[in-house]
Amino acid sequence: MNAYLQGLIAHIPPLDKGQRFILGIDGLSRSGKSTLTRALEEQMHKKNIPCFTIHIDDHIVERKHRYNTGQKEWREYYFLQWDIVGLAENLFHLVKTETQLTLPFYHEKLDLQIMREVRLPDKCVIVIEGVFLQRKDWRSFFDFVVYLECDRELRLSREAEETKKNIDKFSNRYWPAEDHYLAEEQPLRKADLIFKIG
């Protein structure tokens, strides 16, 4: 992991006052995005590189908008799990220039989106972590994207035992959406840096 981190940090340029560098940590579910992001935050802190992290999964929509919609399950996950256009307008279009964003945060227990103000540092690396980051609606907003390549068998082994029992959900919802992303958006080709995990 340390070698990955040093290689990644080497791609972050020095920032002048008011500058932001938008760094994407992309990869399929359980590929290690969150682990890498936490380690990267720690290393940047040690190197006095100001950073701020945004997790895309904090901004999913309510269940009624992504389950039992009449569409195929994989399409619900890929196209409806997030408000793709809304995040483009209220996050990606603004994250490089605005000091304050108003974003919907998903509250799982209440199954509600709650609007919150997010204040961004004036000069920093903005790390955006999540799945499907290189979809065409979002890719152009990043200065640099890392993709974590990790095979499906290893990723599945990292799931909770109870989660693994619901294999139909993977077969009908998650895996076809991942296959669509890989074929349609070709994240391995578009990424600036690839980390092969496992």
Descriptive overview:
One of its GO terms (molecular function) is uridine kinase activity. Keywords: Kinase, Transferase. The chain is an alpha/beta fold. The termini are close together. Helix 3 packs across helix 7. Helix content is 36%, strand content 23%. The protein has a five-stranded parallel sheet. The longest helix is centred in the last third of the chain and has 19 residues, at 167-185. It has one domain: Rossmann fold (3-Layer(aba) Sandwich). A hairpin with a 4-residue loop joins strand 3 and strand 4. It has helices spanning 2-9, 33-46, 73-80, 84-92, 152-157, 161-164, 167-185, 187-190, and strands spanning 20-27, 51-55, 100-107, 112-119, 124-130, 144-149, 193-196.
- Count of the separate structural domains: 1
> Which architecture does the CATH hierarchy give at level 2?
3-Layer(aba) Sandwich
Ends: how far apart? 11 Å
- Strand pairing plus helix content: what structural class? alpha/beta
* Helix share, percent: 25-40%
Low-confidence segments, given as residue ranges, are none
Quick one: CATH superfamily? Answer: P-loop containing nucleotide triphosphate hydrolases
Question: Shape, please?
Answer: globular
Strand order of the largest sheet: 2-5-1-6-7
Number of helices: 8
CATH topology: Rossmann fold
Oligomer: single chain
Using only C-alpha atoms, the radius of gyration works out to 17 Å
Beta-strand content bin = 15-25%
Describe the sheet with the most strands: 5 strands, parallel
How many strands in all? Answer: 7
The whole-number mean of residue pLDDT values reads 96
Order of helices and strands, N to C?
HEHEHHEEEEHHHHE
Classified by CATH, the class is Alpha Beta
